[in-house]
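Here's my example:
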Amino acid sequence: MQDYKNTYLENQVRQVARLQAEGKFIAAYDYLAEYLPLPRVDDLPGAQYDARQNSYIASWGRFTRGPVPGSWLLVEGQAPETQTPMRSVTAKVMDNRIFILLDEQTIPTAERWRADESAYNLLTRINAGLVKDLALGMVACRLEWEESELDKRLHDLRLANDHVSVVCSSAVWDPDRHALVAVTMVSPEQQSLRAITATLCVNSKTLILSVDNKNQIIKSTRRKYIAVPGNLAAVGAEGYLITLLHPLSGNPQEEASEAFYIVTTQGESLPARFVERLNLAIPYPVREAWAEYLLEHGLQENLVRELSLAGDDFQEALWVSKAEGWRTIIENGLKQGQIKL
């Protein structure tokens, strides 16, 4: 288990909680109200800043600066509301979903960890959500996660042409050939998805795939992609989505190209899919039991290359050549007893 603790923030929470335990009423101003569950002093009824006394004055009381930077302490008068005692809690990442650990409860949040985000920034976003409910009085000062969670973080993905940019939940691309192999795009309007699809399939112009603010040049195939449209109504949201697959990710027998693509999703077996497609692509029959041998030696001979991918819609992806070299790999494997008929 790995963890990160914002000690400075925890000390602020501790100081505020101590004052609250003494019966003091605390308010915040400016940046402090963005991450501590305190009312903004300038939003309290009747409160106005008095520059001469460097304090906030209202008909019901007077605030002076508190011990925590950005805080104000009610020193005279009756508090306009009851405050929930503030407490520090721990946030935990489980399957890239953020939960708050409170006593013996595990409370889910809507936050997800992004690939370009530090633990500090994630805690800041979590607290920006918690601060919206002052009645909770919770501040996340510690974050816990398993090492495997780092590979599950969400990537910032966008696909754009000269006029339109859309968000992608997942993408697979071939950097050697500047090809977009698979992508799931999301947009509140269909027109944007159609514009990107048209550039990808019809126009001669290039597109830009932005992955965590690093740009990849994508060339148009000038061919129709395999498209699976949908909408977000099933998950209670508005908008549209579409998954596009490169034309070379279909049946390799139907393509005259020198190579093909394999893309798998969660739960699919890459070795099984590889053997199935290779059987269709080359004139030499192969057996499923040969999968690991063929993949290993195909990679060594540059007949197989792993593709780049981001997001969690697609699990693994390969570029596979149809070249004559497969015959040599199979013959050598049979002679050496590494594979058997």
User: Anything to note?
Assistant: The CA atoms of residues 89 and 102 lie 6 Å apart. Residues 7-21 form the longest helix (15 residues).
